[in-house]
Amino acid sequence: MASIKPIITRFSLIFDYKATMVVSLFSARNAFFISLCLFAALYRPVLSRPAKFADDFRITWSDTHITQIDGGRAIQLKLDPSSGCGFASKKQYLFGRVSMKIKLIPGDSAGTVAAFYMNSDTDSVRDELDFEFLGNRSGQPYTVQTNVFAHGKGDREQRVNLWFDPSREFHEYAISWNHLRIVFYVDNVPIRVYKNNEARKVPYPRFQPMGVYSTLWEADDWATRGGLEKINWSGAPFYAYCKDFDIEGCSVPGPADCPTNPTNWWEGNAYHQLSPVEARSYRWVRVNHMIYDYCTDKSRFSVPPPECSAGI
Q1: Are 246 and 47 contacting, i.e. CB atoms less than 8 angstroms apart?
Q2: Apex 255 CA angle, 253 and 258, nearest 5
Q3: Which residues make beta-bridge pairs with 213?
Q4: Is the pLDDT of residue 311 over 90?
Q5: In terms of CB atoms within 10 Å, which end of the chain has fewer, N or C?
Q6: Strand 181-186 and strand 112-119: pairing?
Q7: Angstrom distances, CA of residue 16 to CA of 42, 45, 218
Q8: Which pLDDT tens digit goes with each residue over 163-221?
Q9: Domain 50-309, CATH among 2.60.40.420, 3.40.50.720, 3.40.1010.20, 2.60.120.200
Q10: Rounded Cα–Cα distance for residues 119 and 127 (Å)
Q11: In the β-sheet with 158-161, what is the strand arrangement from edge to edge?
């Protein structure tokens, strides 16, 4: 590990061999899925010490609406009729893994959007990897939309209804990015895989470093049921929370050989494809919780984009 410590932000790898046995009255399908999650958590490397907000991030929009709490280890984001808010990493990164734990707006959050994403900030040729959490009316599932922009081309939306209430407690959302693939994770469960298909002339984000961003704003013209559900400002202010910020990647500017160094852990063989456990979890999400996939939207694409037949 000594050879890569200088090029990686806060790299501290441990193995957690503890798992809690959960016994409850779930359906066989849910019990099977929970066992997969426990198995994945058992063997996945975890970070030993999440960072404070100020270590890696700065407020970029409406500092009156972002409050550091718990000694700077967490932040509160506020949305009201006057403003939303946002923050960004102090550095940009080229490949690696970024994650944070988020607790979303409870109750009637229709018309609101909370986002966690990476962006190259290069306008028309930007690269971007998005988590967007679309607010809902009380009692409805929260929807997470993911999107991938490469060389300025997006329109690759997928939507998944989360299988839990993300406003009751914190859940981890992560983006893993290397030369071969991008994976979006929710609590270590892969919900999306975007492979490098440059051989099929599909752009892939591998040249531009990206910053890490999070925002909370009003978007009731499209966010909930295509804009049919409007924001209820009588419930404002709306609050979301973030903590356990982590970035592991090649900072730019930084050592020039970092992004191409094959010894970076995220470039290892274990990260070239999903493990068997991850693949089963991924299929479970797609079968039971995916509600939209641009690859199957014939109203937009009479012929599916070439990356859609690439598999995982």
Answers
A1: yes
A2: 110
A3: 88, 117
A4: no
A5: N
A6: unpaired
A7: 6, 7, 39
A8: 999 999 999 999 999 999 999 999 999 999 999 999 999 999 999 999 999 999 999 99
A9: 2.60.120.200
A10: 6
A11: 57-61, 85-89, 211-218, 112-119, 128-134, 143-149, 158-161, 290-293
Token reading at 62: 């409406």
Question: Where does residue 248 rank: exposed (0-12), middle (13-18), buried (19+ CB within 10 A)?
Answer: buried
| Rounded Cα gap, residues 294 and 156, in angstroms | 6
Q: Where do the domains of the chain lie? A: 50-309
Please answer whether residues 158 and 192 qualify as being in contact, where contact means their C-beta atoms are separated by less than 8 angstroms: yes
pLDDT score, position 51: 76
* 299: Cβ contacts below 8 Å, ≥ 6 apart: none
Report the interhelical angle of 28-43 vs 276-288 (nearest 10°).
140
| Percentage of the chain lying above the pLDDT 90 cut | 80
Taking the CB of residue 260, how many other CB atoms lie within 10 A of it? Answer: 12
| Active site residue ranges | 128, 132
Give the tens place of pLDDT for each residue, 39-90. Answer: 444 334 333 346 789 999 999 999 999 999 999 999 999 999 999 999 999 9
Cα 147 from Cα 129, distance rounded (Å): 6
**Helices and strands (H, E) in the chain, number of each type:** 3, 17
User: From CA 103, how far away is CA 127, in angstroms rounded?
Assistant: 26
Q: Whole-angstrom Cα distance, residue 176 to residue 270?
A: 12
- The residue type of 220 is D
* pLDDT at residue 123, rounded to an integer: 85
Scanning the structure block, which residue is given the tokens 């506020």? 78
